[in-house]
Amino acid sequence: MYTTGAKRSCATADMTAATQVADYAIDCKGPEMLYAGQNLNDNEWHTVRVSRRGKYLKLIVDEVQPVEDQMTGDHTRLEFHNIETGIVTERRYMSNVPSNFIGHLQSLMFNGMPYIDLCKIGDIDYCELNARFGFKIIIADPVTFKTKSSYVALSTLQAYASMHLFFQFKTTSADGLILFNSGDGNDFIVIELVKGYLHYVFDLGTGPSLIKGNSDKLLNDNKWHNVLISRDTNNLHTVKINSKLITQNTVGARNLDLKGDLYIGGIAKDMYKTLPKLVASREGFQGCLASVDLNGRLPDLISDALYCNGQIERDCEGPSTTCQEDSCGNQGVCLQQWDGFSCDCSMTSYTGTLCNDLSVPMIQRASFGTQERK
Fold this sequence. Notes:
374 residues; Jelly Rolls; seven-stranded antiparallel beta sheet; mainly beta; 3 domains; single chain; Neurexin-related_CASP; globular
């Protein structure tokens, strides 16, 4: 998130947002680390406050219980020569280099100085900037699954005691398997689209459970949607779709013992018949996935894949042809699909791909016999 540096390791500090917690590190005869917060990669705003007085450090996230510690050694003075946000360039002076920050940052104050605002108005001696001011939905590392038989396999999802997953998706298909990982015994996890709604299906060893996402409209609308699915150590499951949240507690086993490959976008055709009964999917996901975060692991769905199947491409182009008011003739209904559109002519008297062919009704001939009068 931000880092300060000098030409000696004793004058280096950094603040990073990891998968579920914020950590504050001071590298001065060995780094001092403080951790606070949880589930911070939920696409919501969080407030972080860091303070130091001599050897005493304090880290507060979202105005809850502060985390405090004391530095070891005799050093109490930190001399900073530069402040960096989002990325670390002076890596040679750091013992542990964090990954680059992807997200939004505002109101950065350092010793009372609003450095982002000063950089924006040019009221600072030196400022190098390649980020953008203003709020914009971030779609990180998008990948397109062009057919319903396309999928990638990754190494096993690590979700034994707890889990925090985040991803974004965009599709026009109402059904499709997004994520699957089997496990030891009956353990498994599935995320799927069923009739335009998100389903989270899992088994921790005491029988399968299904949690349906709370969304007030169909999700196969060719728009980006944010999905967060988590499970804490008390078996509280959370499913958040955009701003709609649902939670559910489960009893019994608490650990998810997964094994084998983690499948993203679908599975092999012959595997669908072996899925548990609560899983509805019989085909893969067709559309775009982005910003995939698997318990703090940020995989590149293509380069990190153990193997790929079908047509998978970087970026997200979306449907090449979209429904317009005049796409279908004679009041036919346009049905948007990922690779184009089709026309439903069933409520018209026309046929053809665009409902432009007049349907000629078949005239049934009937003969009625006559009965002679007696």
